[in-house]
Amino acid sequence: MSKSLRYIIASFIVFAIILIRLSWISYKQILINEKSTLMVEHTQKVLLVSEQFISQMKDIETAQRGFLLTKNHSFLEPFNRGKKGAITTIDSLKELVSDNPTQLKHLSMIEELCLQKIYFISKNIDEANSTGKVNLTALENGKKIMDTLRKQVNIFQAHEKDLLAIRMQSKIYGQSLMAIYQIILLLVSLIFLGLSFYLVYSELKRRNSLEKTLESKIDELNRSNTELDQFAYVASHDLQEPLRKIRAFSDKLQIKHKSNLNENGKDILNKMANSAARMQALLDDVLSFSRMVNEQSSNLTIVDLNDVLQHVLKDLSVQIQNKNAQIYILSLPQIFANEIQIKQLFSHLISNALKYTHEGVAPHIKIEYQQINNNTSDTSMKLKNHTAYHHFSITDNGIGFENQYAEKIFVIFQRLHKQSEYEGNGIGLALCKRIVVNHQGFIFAKSKLHEGSTFDIYLPIKKLLE
What are the residue boundaries of the structural domains of the chain, listed by start? Predict the structure, then answer.
């Protein structure tokens, strides 16, 4: 993952967290504002009901005066209606302020004064009915109770008005906070949008630059491949011709004039012939490698690896007999591959196992196979192209090498030993890697010095009929 892409992801995460946090705060503030609105409406309702109570008490007193002055019983109807309404209103007020102990105390006093007022009015009405006279003392007491009742209701309402002022202030403050949160959310969203645009634009610009660079590299690679093709042509024609003449003249000297040379001359002639033979082998190997680089996994067919290994062992039968080698091969599958390249692959690896051995120790070579998935392989971090692989391992008991050279040995012309110790041009394992890469696979080596080596080959499993 590129650095800029990590910045983009990190920025998205940070801003997403900020936006979620601000949205949550805004949501909580909306709930607080709704609660404040409900509390304001509740307080206003308490004040309205308390005004209704005062109005009912006034109706009761007016009905009393009308009856006392006119002795008309029609005034008793609003008195009875107002009496029931006042008691019901007090019950409603108790329910409305049930969570306010102070107001409940005030209501208790108001209720007691209300009942006293109703009692004196009822007494005045009863006495006026029976005697036809008005009890001025009872009337005066009723007036005093009414004045006290009004004071208590005013105290009750004053307390509610104080609550209303506090709740209105809280509501206004909450609404102002809500506006601030909305502005902050808008600003953060705009910043997030701008930064996202900048980061995405920068990433697209960087990728566009990389694409142009890649196109340039592809052009260079195509030119390099063209030059490699030209080199292969030169190596296969122009260089081979003088080399063949050198070898031919060397052979003539060996046949016709070797007896006329002294020991030093014979030695020089042998070295010249050996060098020409090495040069021929090197050119052949370079040509093979160049062809392999340009040739991807074409001509794919169903390949029976058991048959391939039999042909390889037959070709290497002389070395196997000379070394008295023991080769163990487990049952191998059929795979979808280039048969010639796969044969070269196993030929080079088995040939190496026969070559790099301890003096006087018979080689033991074991070829094993298993089918694996990425999640069952200890190299799964490297096997990214496919989900299922053929896994081949070739293990020997040879001289081995230090594990720090496990990658170097696959580089062309890289040798861990002198030419005089072990023959070869340092191209065999490079060819093996190229063959595996051509098949979209992987090859790894692991070894311990003097304890043998293991080469692990992973080839993707493809449908045999695709």
Answer: 3-201, 239-294, 298-460
Enter the DSSP assignment of 461: -
∠ CA 312-310-323, nearest 5°, is 60
Which pTM was predicted? Answer: 0.47
CA distance 98 to 255: 129
Tell me, what amino acid is at 317? S
343-367 pLDDT per residue, tens: 888 988 888 888 878 887 888 899 9
Q: For the chain, give the longest Cα–Cα distance.
A: 178
Q: How far apart are CA 361 and CA 450, in angstroms?
A: 12
Question: 185: which 2 tokens?
Answer: 């959310």
What whole-number distance in Å separates Cα of residue 144 and Cα of residue 106?
18
Assign a CATH topology to domain 3-201: Four Helix Bundle (Hemerythrin (Met), subunit A) (1.20.120)
Residue 234, both tokens: 């030169």
Name the least confident of 125-129, 187-191, 225-229.
225-229
Residue 99 three-state SS: coil
Q: State the number of CA atoms in the 13 A half-sphere of 320 facing the CB.
A: 14
| 356: DSSP letter | S
Contact call for residues 114 and 90 (beta carbons, < 8 A):
yes
Domain covering 298-460 in this structure, CATH number: 3.30.565.10
